[in-house]
Amino acid sequence: MIKYRYLIMTGGTFMNQTSQQPGLKEKQSHGTRLFPCAYYHFSNLSYRLRVRHHWHEEVEVVYLQHGSYKLDINMEPYGTDQECFLFLNSGELHSLRSVSVEFDEQAIVFSPSMLLFHNYDSIDELILLPLAQNKLTFPRFLDQTSPFFPAFRSCYQQISRIFSKNNETLITGEQILTDNVIAQLQIKAGILQLIGILMEAGLMRQSPGSESQKITAIKTILSYITEHYQEKLYVQDLASQINMNEQYFCRFFKRSIGKTPIDYINDYRLNKVIRLLETGDAPVTEVCLECGFNNMGNFQRLFKRKTGTTPLQYRKLYLARKSE
């Protein structure tokens, strides 16, 4: 199994915890300051993948080599069970989960500004600068129906091989290039080639403009939950953040995220609990309170519903698995 970023296993499901703020803008930078580009790879034959709602400034090119997936991008649902590439532009709110047990998902995440040349030329003016300003965007998908798919896949796989051969793998599973300038040059050239293939295919698009009010509202709510999950949260508190009445807000949130506000908050808190159970030895009661649960009975019920076991049993099973 190859780890992808940082994943928590919960009841047969891996939960993405890439940053300390899953569900909104990632604080984590991808790559290094001098080379803001990173590669991730996750495949597993026993557990499903789940990447929670989040967004980042960088562009992400995802290769779904095999498996069946459900996606949500800017509140629009998608599904695929074919080999394809998925493109996530800067600022797009997205989530992903595997439907099939067998899957293989890879991702190259990079800042478009790394591609700009020192001497400003027509390539900068017409392609790279608009891309860095999010005025030129990637298509949503590229699959095998496109005659450009084989060339794109070959170039992408070459980039992944360079990362795998020369990378420094962080504790999160992120693969980065530090002082290997030749490998960085090859990666940069490869990304430019990927863009060239898409331009030749006529698939790059002019940005439709600023994001919709709906997406901005959801980002505001998810950010608020992340910042205040340890406190008592009421639906009224959430609704007031975007000036909605409670009844309309609940319908709006459920349509957007697929869960009620309370279910989302509980799930978010439970993921925090699981992280603390796996990484520390604090008593369960202390963990429960630290993550915003004030009713131990309700917490135990929700935890068992999510994982199929009690918190203490979960910790023992996790430690046993880890030792194996």
From TrEMBL:
Keywords: DNA-binding, Transcription, Transcription regulation. The keyword Transcription regulation applies. SMART domains: HTH_ARAC (SM00342). GO terms for molecular function: DNA-binding transcription factor activity; sequence-specific DNA binding. Pfam families: AraC_binding, HTH_18. Residues 219-317 form the HTH araC/xylS-type domain. PROSITE patterns: HTH_ARAC_FAMILY_1, HTH_ARAC_FAMILY_2. The keyword Transcription applies. PANTHER family: ARAC-FAMILY TRANSCRIPTIONAL REGULATOR, HTH-TYPE TRANSCRIPTIONAL REGULATOR EXSA. This is AraC family transcriptional regulator. It comes from Blautia faecicola.
